[in-house]
Amino acid sequence: MSAAAQKARLRAAIWERLEREGVAAFPRPIVGRIPNFRGAAAAAARLAAEPAFVAARTVKVNPDAPQLPLRLRALQAGKCVLVPTPRLRGGFFLLDPARIAPAHWRAAASIAGFARHGVPLTLDELPSIDLMVLGAVAVAPDGARVGKGEGYAELEYAVLRTLGRLAATTLLCTTVHDIQIVPAIPVEPFDVPVDIVATPTRVLHTHTPYPRPPGVLWEYLAPERLAAMPVLAELRARQGEAGG
After folding, report:
1. How far apart are CA 153 and CA 162, in angstroms?
2. CA 131 to CA 57: how far, in whole Å?
3. What's the predicted TM-score (pTM) here?
């Protein structure tokens, strides 16, 4: 069975188990999503207490529902939060708590609040990231991770690496329910492993052995993806000009 087929089977099993055990939370259906779960706020609290998160000044957090409590905690701690628009169609927004009234922090941490309370950034304006949080459908103790199957988290990481806004050593994290931790996940060249996994009950430091992609692996991208994501098209054009 191919790695892609194994990942698809794993996602389906996790989505089904979250629903069957009453752990899944709004929004529904969770199939096709980074699933929200009961205990997401507790997992966020555990990750927010980690020294690396406490020390970070600017964090990049995925836009999905289970990470909303973490985005809010980051704002409450005075951190700037870089958030991508869903499917990278609108680039990135920066949420700066110094420019947002505290009464609006919760709204700003929601997907609907990014454009209203955040500042849209061009590629040249993207800040350096001290810590990155990725959503996950499943994660293994060795740091292997699988998302919802569309590759957006990997592309967000790759864009920031290509632009030099992420160091090779920047810590990568996720928050999941304990159910979402599985024994093993196949890893492909474009996959991004995580260093820290926080659940409602514990924190795992994976010491992952897997290498990270050095940037965008263009050979794995179909032309229609460039057309759908202006950020990628702009980055590809820049690299073409530099190469020429």
Report:
1. 14
2. 9
3. 0.93
